[in-house]
Every structure is written in C-alpha cells, then in structure tokens.
Design a protein that fits this description.
eight-stranded antiparallel sheet; 11 helices; alpha+beta; globular; single chain; two-stranded antiparallel sheet
Length: 380
C-alpha cells in the first residue's frame, strides 16, 4: 500500500476470465489494463518479472510482464508460485483466532502464559505482553530482522540451510536495545511478534505452525499451490525465480533458494496469486472465523498518530487515495515482493508479485507497481 509499506525484513488491484496465456489488454480505463501498465513499468524499472491478478466477483483477469527466469527467458507466469513473505502473518493470526474460538486460548493471554521465560531479558517481560499485542504489533518488541549480523547473513544467502530456531530469533531481538515503549502503547512492526505467535501455536497444539496452517487453512480452502516450507530452501514445480540486485556491484543474483527458517510463521509461506486471493476472500468474509473472532481480526490500531491506516491482526485497513477503503497486506523476502488488496465483502481483489527484492523498501519499482495495485483496485 502506498502510505504504509511493510516488509519481511524491515519495519518496513465486460471482464473475461483468462487462462493466463497472455497479458490483459493494457486499456488504461480498466483495472486489468492499469495493472498491466504497472507491470510493464515495473519491468522498465528493473524487475525481471511482474505478475498480477484482478478479480471482481467470480471473474478474474491476469497480467504479466517480463520473465520468470532470466536465464531461460521464460515469460513470468501469473500461475507460478512465489514466496509471499509477510502475507504469511494473516495465516498465522487466523490459526490463533481459531484456537480462541475453540476455547483453547485467549488472545488476551500473556505470552508468558504459553511461553514461560521466552521473553525475559533486557527489560522485556512476557508477563506483560499479550498474544493480541503480538498480532497487532503493539508488543513493544524489537524486530530481530534489524540485527545487522542477521540481516547480512540473510542478504548474502550463503547458507540457505542454516537453522534459525525461533527462540534464537527472539533472543536476537531482545538483545538489540531496552524497551522504548510499554506493551500496548504504540504500533511498531516487528517480525519477532509473529515468530512468538508461531511458538504459541506450537505450545497450545503440540504442532508446528506449518502443520496447523496446512490442516486448518490450506486443505479446507483447497489451496493446492500453497505450502509452508520448514526446512527445504528450494522451490519446486512452476515458480518464479527470485532475484536480488546488489546494493553495491552490478551482478544480479538468483536467490530463489533461500533460508525459510529466517521468518517462519512471520513470512515463510509459498503461494500463488489465485491461492492468495482465495485465502484473503475467505478470511474477510467469515469462512475461516466465527463472528467474534472475525471482529477481533478486523479491530485495528493506528500505525501512527492521526493516521487513517490501521493494523488489525495480520491485516491492514487503509483508505486509498481514491477514497475507497481496502483490506490488505504486503510481503517481502529475499527475491520477492508482493501485495494484495480486497474489499470488505471480498468481491473486489487485486494481487501482485514482483520477483526481485534486495532488502530495501521504497524503490522506484516498488512505488510504480504498488501505485498500479492501488489504482487498479480503485478502478474496480
């Protein structure tokens, strides 16, 4: 979204259904045309490839520009898999809300209730932080992804199989600095929150969050091209290659195989445009949660004083420049940047993915393709 950019490594839109064989007509008066023009601009800005989906009711159009593999020059396929990064967070929060509906926990339980001693260092106290505050990023915890050693290791991608136990990631966060705000006092994005959320899922169910997400969301919704890798750094089948432009240097790197344990329940899921659209529609329309938990999902906190943008439990609510309101989120992990927008009733949706991310937010490519996502949604 234009006014709020969240990334996995920083706190930081008459239509005929197409099979994805070719780009939508770049008619600037249609949502698909706007998104197609944005995809082409993204490639002009330097992205190897951009793919997108526009859905209104049951009618879907796909757009694509550039390539999915710079070696074979195969066109970027809007049906291909990609890493969805922090869009994973909505899956994780959904599982915790389902567990609450089953009376197995309360999202107002403290972190220490389920993870004794996990947050107890450098002035941070898990007895004063709730699960809700993890999910809406008001815990006051630092983001481990800002640790310079971690960030460098991740960016170099020299060992995609390196283990990162969740508690190790939490410890990296706690060691960064003492608290700068009390729990519940203000919003600050931190992947640490969702690593802990995944740990709570494990403590309550005995299963890894990947297993619970598979059984509770992926299988019931028939998301056949979605998975939560827990160890294998590679992608398989039909996928976009992910690339990293060096901050210093001139050689683009293929980082398709990257360490999935670095973000886990905060950002490890692999999916497609169609599956992400199916999930977000189901989530917003109450197919996954009872009314009480749906209301909690959509209860937002402001991301800044005076801001109209609110953060719910793993999803964002934002008023777009055209005046319309939309739910959504975005995700960025090494090699991939994606986002989605959807109306309250799920009838209007835009999903878009780019196959390059080099750990910096606010690039021209991100801005141009992000604006196209916003403008495409507004045109629906």
């Amino acid at each position: 979204m234009k006014s709020l950019r969240l990334t996995a490594v920083g706190a930081t839109l008459v239509l005929a259904a197409l099979a994805g064989a070719g780009p939508a007509n770049a008619d600037a008066s249609t949502a698909a045309g706007i998104l197609q023009a944005g995809a082409q601009q993204g490639v002009a800005d330097g992205y190897p490839g951009v793919i997108g989906l526009v859905r209104q009711g049951d009618t879907t159009q796909y757009v694509h520009a550039g390539v999915g593999d710079i070696n074979t020059r195969v066109p970027a396929d809007p049906k291909a898999q990609f890493r969805i990064g922090s869009n994973t967070k909505a899956f994780t929060s959904t599982v915790l809300l389902q567990l609450e509906a089953e009376h197995r926990l309360s999202i107002d339980d403290t972190v220490d209730r389920w993870l004794p001693g996990a947050v107890n260092a450098n002035g941070y106290d898990g007895t004063k932080i709730t699960i809700r505050q993890l999910l809406n990023h008001t815990s006051g915890l630092p983001d481990y992804a800002k640790d310079s050693g971690f960030a460098l290791t991740y960016a170099i991608n020299a060992n995609p199989n390196q283990p990162w136990p969740p508690q190790t990631l939490v410890n990296l966060a706690l060691a960064q600095h003492k608290p700068t705000s009390a729990p519940g006092e203000r919003w600050e994005y931190a992947n640490t929150n969702y690593v802990l959320a995944g740990m709570v899922i494990k403590a309550v169910t005995g299963n890894d969050p990947a297993t619970e997400i598979q059984h509770r969301i992926i299988e019931p919704l028939g998301l056949h091209n979605t998975g939560f890798p827990t160890a294998d750094p590679a992608l398989h089948g039909n996928y976009l290659h992910g690339y990293e432009y060096p901050v210093i240097g001139i050689v683009i790197r293929d980082v398709t195989a990257s360490d999935v344990q670095t973000f886990g329940a905060a950002g490890a899921i692999v999916s497609t445009l169609d599956d992400l659209a199916t999930f977000s529609r189901a989530l917003l329309t109450g197919q996954l949660l009872p009314p009480a938990q749906e209301a909690e999902l959509k209860t937002t906190v402001p991301v800044a004083s005076g801001s109209t943008t609110g953060y719910g439990l793993g999803i964002i609510h934002e008023q777009l420049p055209c005046g319309q309101w939309a739910w959504g989120h975005n995700g960025a992990v090494l090699g991939y940047f994606s986002d989605w927008l959807a109306s309250e009733d799920g009838t209007k949706q835009v999903v878009r993915a780019n196959n390059e991310f080099h750990l910096l937010a606010g690039t021209k490519g991100q801005q141009d393709t992000g604006n196209a996502t916003l403008n495409a949604f507004c045109a629906l």
